[in-house]
Design a protein that fits this description.
The chain folds into 3 domains: 30-85 and 269-524, ANL, N-terminal domain (Rossmann fold), CATH 3.40.50; 108-261, Rossmann fold; 533-655, ANL, C-terminal domain (GMP Synthetase, Chain A, domain 3, 2-Layer Sandwich), CATH 3.30.300. 30% of the residues lie in helices and 23% in strands. It has an 8-stranded mixed sheet with strand order 12-11-8-6-7-14-15-23, sandwiched between helices. A 7-stranded mixed sheet has the order 5-4-17-16-18-19-20, with helices on both faces. It has a 4-stranded antiparallel sheet with strand order 21-22-24-25. The chain binds adenosine-5'-monophosphate-propyl ester (PRX). The site of adenosine-5'-monophosphate-propyl ester has 22 residues, from helix 10, strand 20, strand 24 and strand 25. Adenosine-5'-monophosphate-propyl ester (PRX) is lined by residues 274, 320-321, 396-399, 421-426, 447, 508-510, 522, 524-525, 531, 536.
Length: 656
């Protein structure tokens, strides 16, 4: 267990926030809760039948074959025999009710432009865009890459894919051309959907330009659909004839209605790339019925979402939180979703609170890094606005330190709103450990307990449960409907990463501890995955980019604890002898990483060193580098091949 990898959370906190003052609480019938305790598959069977609209209901709830010495791969099939369509569940079923003219999406662009789309608007636009995709030759099972800013077209494009059974792969708009190319080539998408650009902090994010650069080496792409977000004059956007077409033109040319594809429960819904422990991102594959069941149910339980709510999840659509809790979960519940395109400090640091006041947001779901940033900016920005509409606050993406939790609770929630800390992953598809809104007692900094239908444990190296208060590995001990089914194109890696470590259990890669009251405290990653401002990055990914630079012979990247972002990447680099270190080289390398991956991967520091500390078997001792970067006393160095290397590094670090 890598103790240093975890952030320093005080899990002995015994502050318990009781819930007597809240009159609203999630309603799950006691009888269902009892069923979840007794029989997890039967519980999910009830939930899936009750919460989803089926063309043909499922015949078999679960086929679960864990990985054993005899089997080659684990098999998890949920709701076999069932036929349904996700777009129908998220939109069509609502337009048959009074929700037809209810706002589905209230969108505000960074410059202040506003669009409101009702469920009926979505219904019409999704069908048209589904027809556009069909006209471009996209068929069930084909992949479509979406590289868009936070605009309603991103939601329309995702649901249009779902309508015709195409598999979407959304790539975060902050990723570089290079990162986009890698993801397109891995998924072999035939269509790319992008925009002229998006707004971020008053500047243009040049998505089409990045896309053009990426597409120089993406032979699978046959068509590019370009949304005119309006950041550029349309006549200035280079459109490659025969390949690029405007979204608005195509939408005019197609018929208005498109019948939904009948999808089997286990048909793929989307691929989403996430960082793992190697340089290559992993395409997590989520399927239709299980994913939708998981996100629909957890949106209801954790946020207690209701028709009168204005719900705002600040995540970008390019991350799993954007997929599950901006698009699929809330829309399946017929909710009103606020979407905002830009930065929280544009034009001023009160923009989020201005939005909460303007639209009367009732539920706010964001990341600890954002909360810590707002804390640093100070309360004056919050106090400019009336936030009384808020009734529930959520947190996701990284451990929330009790100080940030309490600040959120006091300053944003006015001590009225439960704070739900939600633990989950791209792989889990939906929230796994979190309080039930208004029901579960809260301890600041703890995600509390697994939700009904989930089974989690903290185990030691051998997979034996740890006693209360002892940290170990977080595992999930029963299959759940929205689990990632495989890694696109690399099933072996899926088995190795998640199922081989502890037989019969899913290894999350996180460290955790259960306290004496059974509360779960999440303590960060145990592997070489960084969590930078709630975004996952692998140290290997950064290292493999750095060594591609002509100056770099070898590189090691570690995560250093950061008060605002949780962690930031710090690079230790050895330079080729033929390459003199010049003063601008550190910045050049930082820019190089941004160019290859995106701004979120920018190293906070680059240190040059003659050698990297290695074990005798040649493994870089990242733990040691982490100690050095964080100024800690050095741990055991007896396994080092050349201990003087470290002494040198320590000295170097102190001198800088
Ligand atoms: O380390 C955990 C951390 O984020 C990882 C998952 O990252 P990603 O797949 O990008 O999904 C982020 C949004 C769900 C986890 O392995 N993490 C996520 N939520 C929490 C968390 N760590 C502590 N507390 C959380 N609430």
């Amino acid at each position: 267990m890598n103790h240093e990898a975890a952030s320093a959370l005080d899990f002995s906190s015994d502050v318990v926030i009781e819930l007597d003052q809240w009159h609203r609480r999630t309603t799950i019938p006691e009888e269902l809760l009892a069923l979840a305790e007794r029989d997890i598959p039967q519980f999910w069977d009830r939930i899936a039948r009750d919460m989803l609209e089926w063309i043909v209901p499922p015949q078999q709830t679960l086929r679960w074959e864990p990985l054993t010495a005899e089997s080659v791969a684990p098999v998890a099939r949920w709701f076999d025999g069932g036929i349904l369509n996700v777009a129908v569940n998220c939109v069509d079923r609502h337009i048959r009710t009074w929700r037809r003219n209810k706002a589905a999406i209230i969108w505000e662009g960074e410059p202040g432009d506003v669009r409101v789309l009702t469920y009926y608007d979505l219904y019409r636009q999704i069908q048209r865009f589904a027809n556009v995709l069909l006209s471009l030759g996209v068929r069930k099972g084909d992949r479509v890459t979406i590289y868009l800013p936070m605009i309603p077209e991103a939601v329309i494009a995702m649901l249009a894919c779902a309508r015709i059974g195409a598999i979407h792969s959304v790539v975060f708009g902050g990723f570089s051309a290079e990162a986009l190319r890698e993801r397109i080539n891995d998924s072999q998408s035939s269509v790319l959907i992008t925009a002229d650009g998006g707004w971020r902090r008053g500047s243009i994010v040049p998505l089409k330009r990045n896309a053009d650069q990426a597409l120089e080496q993406c032979p699978s792409i046959r068509h590019v659909v370009v949304v005119h977000r309006g950041v550029e004059d349309a006549t200035h956007v280079p459109m490659q004839s025969g390949r690029d077409q405007w979204w608005h033109r195509l939408m005019e040319e197609v018929p208005p209605s498109c019948p939904p594809e009948a999808m089997e429960s286990e048909d793929p819904l989307f691929i989403l790339y996430t960082s793992g422990t190697t340089g290559k991102p992993k395409g997590q594959l989520h399927t239709t019925a299980g994913y939708l069941t998981g996100v629909t149910a957890t949106t209801r339980w954790v946020f207690d979402i209701a028709d009168e709510d204005v719900y705002w999840c600040t995540a970008d659509i390019g991350w799993i939180t954007g997929h599950s809790y901006v698009v699929y979960g809330p829309l399946a519940n017929g909710a009103t979703v606020l979407m905002y395109e830009g930065a929280p400090d544009y034009p001023d640091r009160d923009r989020w609170w201005a939005l909460v006041e303007k639209y009367g947001v009732t539920i706010l779901y964001t990341a600890p890094t954002a909360i810590r940033t707002m804390m640093r900016w100070g309360e004056e920005y919050v106090q400019r606005h009336n936030l009384e509409s808020l009734r529930l606050l959520g947190s996701v993406g990284e451990p929330i330190n009790p100080e940030a939790w309490l600040w959120y609770w006091e300053n944003i929630g006015g001590k009225r709103c439960p704070v739900v800390d939600t633990w989950w992953q791209t792989e889990t598809g939906c929230i796994v450990i979190a309080p039930l809104a208004g029901r579960t007692p809260l301890k600041p900094g703890s995600a509390t307990f697994p939700l009904p239908g989930f089974a989690a444990a903290v185990v030691d190296e051998r997979g034996t449960p740890c006693p209360a208060g002892v940290r170990g590995y977080l595992v999930l001990t029963a299959p759940w409907p929205s689990m990632s089914r495989t890694i696109w194109g690399d099933p072996e890696r899926y088995i190795q990463t998640y199922w081989s470590r502890f037989p019969g259990m899913y290894a999350t890669g996180d460290a955790a501890v259960c306290d004496g009251d059974g509360f779960f405290w999440l303590l960060g990653r145990t592997d070489d995955v960084l969590n930078v401002a709630g975004h996952r990055l692998s140290t290997m990914e950064l290292e493999s980019v750095l060594v591609e630079h002509p100056a770099v012979a070898e590189a090691a990247v570690i995560g250093r604890t950061d008060a605002v972002k949780g962690q930031v990447p710090v690079a230790f680099v050895t330079v080729r002898e033929s390459f003199p270190i010049h003063t601008g080289l550190a910045d050049e390398l930082k820019d190089y990483v941004v160019e290859r991956i995106g701004a979120l991967a920018r190293p906070a520091e680059v240190h040059f060193t003659a050698e990297l500390p290695k074990t005798r078997s040649g493994k870089i001792m990242r733990r040691l580098l982490r100690d050095i970067a964080e100024g800690r006393v050095l741990g055991d160095t007896t396994t080092l091949a050349d201990p003087s290397v470290v002494q040198h590094l320590v000295q170097l670090y102190r001198e800088e």
